[in-house]
Amino acid sequence: MEKYSQYRDRGSGIAPFFPIPTQPSGIYLPLHIFLFLFRLPLLLTVTLSYFIVLQWLPIGSLGKKACLWSILGVPGVWWIDLQIDGVRKGYVLLSTSTLLTPGTSHLTPHTAHSSLAKHHKDRFPQPSSIIASSSTSPIDALYLAAIFDPIFTASYPTTRQVQRITLLQALLRTFSHPQSTPPPNTPLTDLTTLLKAHPTRVIVVFPECTTTNGRGILQFSPSLLTAPPTTKIFPLSLRYTPGDITTAVPGAYFSFLWNLLSKPTHCIRVRIAENVYNTPTTTTTTMAARVARSSYATNFLDTLQDDTGSSSTDTLLGSEEGDGGLAVPITADERRVLDKVAEALARLGRVKRVGLGVKEKAEFVRAWTRQRRRG
Known about the structure:
34% helix; single chain; two-stranded parallel sheet; seven-stranded mixed beta sheet; 11 helices; alpha/beta; 9 strands
């Protein structure tokens, strides 16, 4: 891998673009082949049924979420390890797909998340809030859609605006080549406009703009800076066990399906950080005096975490490094907002931030593709 050393982070040596190797099947190869051949037609049937027919029918949000959980259930993605900053672990049963609260029994994954949202509204994404999610796999979008029924967006490092995309587009983007700029004639908007138009929905932003293998946090797009100052931004990290269902390299359809369908089960490790506001210099007191409660009050303000409570994760980038490679100029205060979200994602994922971004990944993909063709 020495030929790809320039695509490692210079400070840490982390390589966020390399595919994660799959463990050899060994004596379990016949079982893995059987699972793959048995599940593949089921997955194709359930997936195509939803995207071609069911999503257009008036089955409601719960009906759509049930269909999405069925898609996740076919390959055995039913173990959800959920943890939220500020919520004692007694309320979340780790390494299972259920939530336990005192006096309750096992619940379904959707019911578990709904119950958690009711108990901890200020710490769980609610309508009119924003999720800043890591991006490593197509499962990211499926899980977020199954839980939050959000509006997905695509970010680019060269603009503060975002492109509204569908769930299917969000899935396909995890297999596509990284893009520094929006395609020509792409309709763009900003987060404030989206929130005003859809006050009952959660907005999902992938600020890294492209997928990684989950071993580092890339430089951010400035798209989060268009969020209203009173809107909660929840950093959310998704990691997988086994980790080989990430799609860091574009076009890896077969390897993804093999890794997904040939294993008996998969676990999603979900971590949600305390919310961040797009107001780096605003204190809790001034924010509380500035915001009036409404029917969506819990989504605009409950408490604002003090800057001293931000992540202590050892990071590789800092505000003093200017724009950190961004093509869009940003101020020092705006850099602090992006840093807080990036540091939270790094801490949640137990990884480091890296000095790489969409440009470096595009160069890596070209080099990787040339080498594969020669091989």
